[in-house]
């Protein structure tokens, strides 16, 4: 049943990616050049929906949170590698899969690159676990815990910041 649910949510997500036009190369490059905010608006909307959904399920006792440890070194280096790959390829992993689903075969090159990167990471993991994966370990913390406030306060704050950003983008026609 988990696989069916995963496949259904994946299809829905792919449909939304396609309808939001974020699978388009020009949208990807427009975002990377900061002249088209369609992608960031889509991502922020997804993050906000995810935040509300996860914490609503948590508050109702439907799920337990399994917070992973924050490791700044790994997240900074990983984020930089992700950004460089996105800039070179023109797609992030999700949009690459969506582009392939639309029949754009060139997306396979990036997908192969992601798989090769994952294999290299798996090979380098023993060494990385003693170096990069130990730099800046903060532990299993969440933003509400760091701020010592209820999670709905943080979600509400994000909601207003995101709405203000959307309004700004619309005024600037981004």
Report on this structure.
With 174 residues, the chain is an all-alpha fold. It contains eight helices and two strands, in the order αααβαααβαα. A two-stranded antiparallel sheet has the order 1-2. It is globular.
Q: From the helix content, strand content and strand pairing, which structural class follows? A: mainly alpha
| Main sheet specs | 2 strands, antiparallel
| Secondary-structure element order, N to C | HHHEHHHEHH
Multimeric organization: single chain
**Spatial order of the strands in the main sheet?**
1-2
How many strands appear in the DSSP assignment? 2
The rough form would be described as globular
Strand content: under 5%
Detail the poorly predicted runs: none
Query: What is the radius of gyration computed over CA atoms, rounded to a whole number of angstroms?
Result: 18 Å
Mean pLDDT: 92
Query: Considering DSSP H and I runs of 4 or more, what fraction of the residues is helical?
Result: over 70%
First-last Cα distance: 41 Å
Number of helices: 8
List the helices and strands and how they pair.
Layout: H1 2-19, H2 25-32, H3 38-59, E1 70-71, H4 72-89, H5 93-101, H6 107-128, E2 137-139, H7 143-147, H8 151-171
Antiparallel strand pairs: 1-2
Helix pairs in contact: 3-8, 5-6
Q: Notable features of this structure?
A:
174 residues; mainly alpha; two-stranded antiparallel ribbon; 3% strand; globular
Put the structure in a nutshell:
This protein has helices at 2-19, 25-32, 38-59, 72-89, 93-101, 107-128, 143-147, 151-171, and strands at residues 70-71, 137-139. The chain is mainly alpha-helical and 174 residues long.
